[in-house]
Specification:
The protein folds into 2 domains: 64 residues, Translation initiation factor 3 (IF-3), N-terminal domain (Ubiquitin-like (UB roll), Roll); 89 residues, Translation Initiation Factor IF3 (2-Layer Sandwich). The chain has 5 helices and 8 strands; from the N terminus they run E-E-H-E-E-H-E-H-E-H-E-E-H. The strands form 2 sheets. A 4-stranded mixed sheet has the order 2-1-4-3. Strands 5-6-8-7 form a 4-stranded mixed sheet, covered by helices on one side. Strand 1 and strand 2 form a beta hairpin.
């Protein structure tokens, strides 16, 4: 199990002298640890070691509970802003009709525009295994249909009774350049 390392607080600080900073960033100066702890206690706050590698270590007088709460809020916001990319799969059969093909291409475009990866799979049943060239042709037609917004991550590959290709959305910057060019 991985332990999250948190900064040392109050009596956990071991350095004999520390550089003390107020919560608003104003420098107080270098003083002994006992004097710094007393100063923090007089203000009703905690002494938190923010830069232990400095010489002497830098400690800030602040409310440690509030500091931890702010850190948790920032972490949660960072996680929320990260874009989660999923792999969406579209399945075709060797005799997929034009309308069904167009319908699935439309869905693939929506997935790619949302930033997801798309896996297009052709499933072969029974004697259809003899016509793998038709599967390659179908997937190539699919790749060509979405080539303006996607690029091939994994080329067409065959595994047992499946043939697939994986597409990823092109970077958003290059998409904007194409729009400006038109």
């Amino acid at each position: 199990m991985q332990r999250v390392q948190r900064p040392r607080v109050n009596e956990e600080i071991t350095a004999p002298q520390v550089r003390v900073v107020e919560a608003d960033g104003k420098m107080i100066g270098i003083m002994g640890i006992d004097e710094a702890l007393q100063l923090a206690e007089d203000r009703g706050l905690d002494l938190v070691e923010v830069a232990p590698q400095a010489n002497p270590p830098v400690c800030k007088i602040m409310d440690f509970g509030k500091y931890q709460y702010e850190l948790q809020k920032r972490e949660k916001l960072k996680r929320r802003q990260q874009q989660q990319q999923q792999l969406k799969e579209l399945r075709f059969k060797i005799n997929t009709d034009k309308h069904d093909f167009d319908f699935k291409v439309r869905h693939a475009r929506e997935f790619l525009e949302a930033g997801h990866r798309v896996k297009a799979t052709v499933i072969f049943r029974g004697r259809e295994m003899l016509h793998q060239d038709s599967g390659v042709e179908l997937l190539q037609r699919f790749v060509d249909a979405v080539s303006d917004i996607a690029k091939v991550e994994h080329p067409i590959k065959s595994e047992k009774r499946h043939m697939y290709v994986i597409l990823v959305p092109e970077s958003k910057k290059s998409g904007k350049r194409k729009e400006k060019a038109q």
